[in-house]
């Protein structure tokens, strides 16, 4: 994610150590590192990684495209929540569309696509880090406001489909601004030893300081702030639901509370399961100095694949688990007589 180097090939090494974050992103920055010639090539990774990325790409494209199609085509699906789900699916679809380029680079062992595409792909790669969690944060805020209005028996005239469109556009703009520094520093680096090209982040001097700053920047804006916000909102939401006085429809409300509790657990568990290892690797990168080993490389690619997998899991979490979505999707697939 961090850059587009050569996953599966010998990772960069500086003073016999390797940055764990660079490995977990499957890429590296240009920190004047060189590739040790004695580092063995792992044939298993060469085969397994393209297969994993291909599965993620196929499932992600199918699931997210189905979400987009149903929401756009089914009139009853045009709700505020589904507008956020639609934008989340578009962001995930955009990322899965560029995975074939990651696969091609992995198989070719160099970057053949030029400077412009390097900036585009690296930007989309970083966009994936921020987009899902930010749209999830917006959905959490929306759900909290709905629960708050329900508890207070108030209407929400400002919560409209048009307002959801405007908020979604603002999220896109915000994430683009956050990712812009990475776009500026992205470029094709030519290794002076073998003239092999890599799509990397080339920071100005002092490179190590810029590198650490970029890790902290990503950790705070891409994980710490949004996840903290989500946790606080869901905690407050569950607290208000538990303390809500039940009326004559007590059973129905109690069932709804259980559904919300389960959904909250699934959303938070899957999001944290997929992204926490990736961001924890940043802390490891900033506090330790690890040597390159087969075990470390295996862990790094597992963490990368796990974070990538979040893009294909989102459709099932936010759409396919919803009864109204399933009904709309089945209706779209019905064969109508001429």
TrEMBL record:
Keyword annotations of the record: Cell membrane, Disulfide bond, G-protein coupled receptor, Glycoprotein, Membrane, Receptor, Transducer, Transmembrane, Transmembrane helix
SMART domains, sorted: 7TM_GPCR_Srsx (SM01381)
Annotated transmembrane regions: 45-72, 84-103, 129-151, 163-190, 216-239, 260-278, 298-321
Domain of life assignment: Eukaryota
Locations listed in the record: Cell membrane
Record's GO cellular component terms: neuron projection; plasma membrane
GO terms of molecular function: neuropeptide binding; neuropeptide receptor activity
Its membrane topology: Multi-pass membrane protein
The G-protein coupled receptors family 1 profile domain, residue ranges: 63-318
Pfam families associated with the record: 7tm_1
InterPro entries tied to this protein: GPCR_Rhodpsn, GPCR_Rhodpsn_7TM, Neuropept_B/W_rcpt
Main location: membrane
Family designation: Belongs to the G-protein coupled receptor 1 family.
Name of the protein described by the UniProt record: G-protein coupled receptors family 1 profile domain-containing protein
The species this protein was found in: Dicentrarchus labrax
């Amino acid at each position: 994610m961090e850059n587009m180097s050569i996953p599966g090939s010998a990772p960069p090494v500086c003073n016999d150590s390797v940055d764990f974050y660079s490995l977990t992103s499957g890429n590296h920055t240009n920190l004047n590192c060189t590739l040790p010639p004695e580092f063995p090539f792992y044939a298993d990774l060469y085969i397994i990684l393209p297969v994993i990325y291909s599965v993620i790409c196929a499932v992600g494209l199918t699931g997210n495209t189905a979400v987009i199609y149903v929401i756009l085509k089914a009139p009853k699906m045009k709700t505020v929540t589904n507008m956020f789900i639609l934008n989340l699916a578009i962001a995930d679809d955009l990322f899965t569309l560029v995975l074939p380029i990651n696969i091609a680079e992995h198989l070719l062992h160099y970057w053949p696509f030029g400077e412009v595409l390097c900036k585009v792909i690296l930007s989309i790669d970083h966009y994936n880090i921020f987009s899902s969690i930010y749209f999830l944060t917006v959905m959490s805020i929306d759900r909290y406001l709905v629960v708050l209005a329900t508890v207070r028996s108030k209407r929400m005239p400002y919560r409209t489909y048009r307002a959801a469109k405007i908020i979604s556009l603002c999220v896109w703009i915000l994430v683009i601004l956050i990712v812009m520094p990475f776009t500026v520093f992205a470029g094709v680096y030519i290794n002076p030893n073998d003239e092999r090209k890599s799509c990397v982040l080339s920071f100005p001097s002092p490179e190590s300081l810029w590198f650490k700053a970029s890790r902290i920047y990503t950790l705070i804006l891409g994980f710490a702030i949004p996840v903290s916000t989500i946790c606080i909102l869901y905690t407050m939401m569950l607290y208000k639901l538990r303390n809500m006085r039940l009326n004559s429809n007590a059973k129905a409300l109690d069932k709804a509370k259980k559904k919300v509790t389960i959904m909250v657990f699934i959303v938070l568990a899957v999001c944290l399961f997929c992204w926490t290892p990736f961001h924890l690797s940043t802390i490891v990168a900033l506090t330790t100095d690890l040597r390159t080993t087969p075990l470390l490389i295996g862990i790094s690619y597992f963490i990368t694949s796990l974070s990538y997998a979040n893009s294909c899991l989102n459709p099932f979490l936010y759409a396919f688990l919803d009864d109204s979505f399933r009904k709309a999707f089945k209706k779209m697939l019905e064969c109508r007589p001429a």
